Amino acid sequence: MVRLLTHNLLACHAKDCNTNNFPLQFKDVQLEIREADFNPEFLKGFMPKIDWKALVDTARQLGDTSLPLEQPEMVDDEFLKNLHHILLEIHVEEGSMTCPNCGHVYPISNGIPNMLLAEHEIG
Amino acid sequence: MPLRYLFHFAQVHHEFRLPELQSISELHGISYKLPNEAKDRDPRRPFMVVELESEEDARILARRCILIKAIYEFYAQGSTYEEVHEVNRQNEHLWKRYIEDTSFRFLITSSHHKIPQSRQREVIESFAYMDFRGKIDMKNPDILLMCFEEYDDKPGTTLERHEGDGKFRVVFFGRLIEEGTARQLIHKFDVKKRVYYGNTSMESEISLLMANQTLASPGKFVYDPFVGTGSMAYPTAHFGALVFGSDIDGRQMRGKQKVPGVIRAAQQYGISSHIIDLATFDITNNPWRCGELFDAIVTDPPYGVRAGAKRLGRKRELSERQRELCLQHSLSPRPDDQPYIPPTKPYELSHLAADLVLFARYLLKPGGRLVFFLPTVTDEYEEVDIYSMLCEGMEVIANSLQNFGSWGRRLVTIRKTTLKQYSPPTFEPAQPPSDEPAHIPAHKDFREKYFQGFKKSDDKTEQSSLYFVNP
Predict the structure, then answer these.
(1) From A44, B24, B112, B322, which residue has the greatest number of CB atoms within 10 Å?
(2) Closest Cα to residue B149, out of B179, B108, B118, B107?
(3) Is A37 part of the contact surface with chain B (CB cutoff 8 Å)?
(4) B384 to chain A nearest CA, in Å?
(5) What Enzyme Commission number(s) does the record list for this chain (chain B) (predicted)?
(6) Is the confidence at residue B164, as pLDDT, over 90?
(7) Is the pLDDT of residue B456 over 70?
(8) What is the DSSP letter of B346?
(9) Do the Cβ atoms of A119 and B330 come within 8 Å?
């Protein structure tokens, strides 16, 4: 768990951390690859929500270079299969995510990220 | 021309029946028409004659609606058998094609009554004019003809065996099209057979009804912000949707083994790849980067009977010195197995419900649905309680009561009707306009009312002391 789809949707939300708070930086990660059902309709519907640069950068950090730097306007099956693999089949099981701005560390254990804030970080 | 079908409904959760029919029809683009007269569409009665455009639509509904036991092609109804036979003869064009060479079985049954064997034969023989020549096959007939006598339910009375036989309210007659196969899912998702559950897990039939209210289907993205042990996630994922769950308390999702409990239960049902992710956070301090992500939000918020709702924060203000100590505690390094646990405070139910609607408006795509349970005090509930928590662009489309006597819970379905984009909610208590007193819904302080047995109390001191009693 912590698929790259999820990683692409989570930003640091500590108090007053509003800029440069995304994407969170993976650290000390343990990866697992697990197959998921391919659903092109879901992927096409989800594409407008993706922060493309964050997704490509993160995928490259984890060793997958199959995505183009620019989000293509026309999509073919091969592209969708690569996108499917990156969004849904790479799971970060252990490690952490660090905010590039405030440095808050969100730990991941057994695939579940702890996104809770400390007392002094809430509004 | 629309065709008439006889729907046999399960005699449970009657207020959920029509909303479910509406939802599944909308999901599959099916148009239907209910009977004109109120007494004929009373959801407490077992049968209803509904107009559909095709037999295929009837099959789709029977395979997905949890509350449908079976759907029949409608041949006749009447308050006497004479009436039934007269209508049935007029409808000969519907059954003529089965006369020549179709094996059949003929069944007669009733609601709230037992028909004696001798009269069952009598009734079956009275249909002899249909002159079906195919063989009678009790095991694998080509068609099943069903005659159903509806008797009035007389709760609390004990009747002699066969007492009042023949004094039925109405008789229906038709041909079976499809058994309601979705009802088997109630057993498949039975909490007792699940490898992981907790004391707040939702019973399977209700969680399936909730999943149907979300219009769950392949390609949809659904979120449960109080996912707990995942009861709503499983049926929603079973219908093909992808599910995301979050909870302020990670222990409910994780359980005690390495593989989180929710994932283990999803594996049991063969749907673990549909659980997109689980995350620990408080919805009032959430990490969502943007809105308009989900097709539906489905949840059973904690309302305090088994578990009270919590949000980050502190009940009491701290002194300067205490605050400094807490800050140092949260920043100091600690071993992995003893993570920092931030303090939480109670989250009052009416505040939570209003926040949930705002949160859903932010996170739902246009046309998306929020489906959730709201507990209410039966004697105090007013319809305005639901409407007072709405906001611009969110509209109630269903509100079904599950009645437990002095209290009950309402499954509320709200649709996002606006295309407008909203900023994330602040989760601050709403400031009522000062010139008029704000409406206080009956679900406010539900937990306190529950533990007082829903008595009306003038003694305010007793009320506040009860607040801290743990169940």
Answers:
(1) B24
(2) B108
(3) yes
(4) 32
(5) 2.1.1.214
(6) no
(7) no
(8) E
(9) yes
Task: Compute the C-alpha angle B310/B314/B315, nearest 5°.
Answer: 85
Residue B336 pLDDT level (bands cut at 50, 70, 90): low
Q: What six digits make up the tokens of B118?
A: 């001798």
Question: For residue B338, is pLDDT > 80?
Answer: no
pLDDT of residue B468: 40
Closest residue, chain A, to B286 (C-alpha):
A13
Alpha helices, DSSP H only, in B150-272? 185-188, 204-213, 233-238, 250-254, 261-268
Q: How far is B55 from chain A (nearest CA, A)?
A: 28
Residue B463 has pLDDT above 70, yes or no: no
- Which of A101, A106, A112 best tests the B interface by mutation, with the highest count of B CBs <10 A? A112
Task: Count the neighbouring beta carbons within 10 Å of the beta carbon of residue B64.
Answer: 22
Q: Are B146 and B176 in contact (CB under 8 A)?
A: yes
How far is the alpha carbon of A65 from chain B, nearest alpha carbon, in Å?
Answer: 23
Yes or no, beta carbons of B312 and A1 under 8 Å apart: no
Residue B139 near residue B102, CB atoms below 8 Å: no
pLDDT, mean over chain B: 90
Could you tell me how far CA B89 lies from the centroid of its own chain?
40
In this prediction, residue B437 carries a pLDDT of 67
Does residue A88 belong to the interface with chain B, where contact is any CB pair within 8 Å?
yes
Closest listed residue to residue B443, CA positions, set B376, B344, B380: B376
Contacts of A34 in chain B (CB under 8 A): 273
Going by pLDDT thresholds of 50, 70 and 90, the confidence category of residue B387 is: confident
pLDDT at B73: 97
Q: Is the pLDDT of residue B103 over 80?
A: yes
Tens of pLDDT, residue by residue, chain A (123 residues): 899 999 999 999 999 999 999 999 999 999 999 999 999 999 999 999 999 999 999 999 999 999 999 999 889 999 999 999 999 999 999 999 999 999 999 999 999 999 999 888 887
Helix axes B81-90, B117-126, angle to 10 degrees: 30
Q: Does A103 touch chain B (CB under 8 A)?
A: no
Peptide bond preceding A23 in cis form (omega within 30 of 0): yes
Tally: H helices and E strands in chain A: 4, 4
Q: Which residues in chain B have Cβ-Cβ distances shorter than 8 Å to A120?
A: 326-327, 330
What ipTM score was computed for the predicted complex, to two decimals? 0.97
The pLDDT-based confidence of B125 (bands split at 50, 70, 90) is very high
Contact B232, B372 (CB under 8 A): no
**Nearest to B151, CA basis, from B115, B183, B186, B98:** B115
Q: Which residue carries 């995928």 as its tokens?
A: A59
Q: Looking at per-residue confidence, does B358 or B153 come out higher?
A: B358
Residues of B4-36 as b/e, b for ≥16 C-beta within 10 angstroms?
bbbbbbbbebbbbbbbbbbbbbebeebebebee
In whole angstroms, give the CA distance from residue B373 to residue B325. Answer: 40
Q: Are the beta carbons of B277 and A6 separated by less than 8 Å?
A: yes
Q: In the beta sheet, which residues pair with residue A114?
A: B280
What six digits make up the tokens of B174? 């038709």
Distance from CA of A70 to the nearest CA of B (A): 21
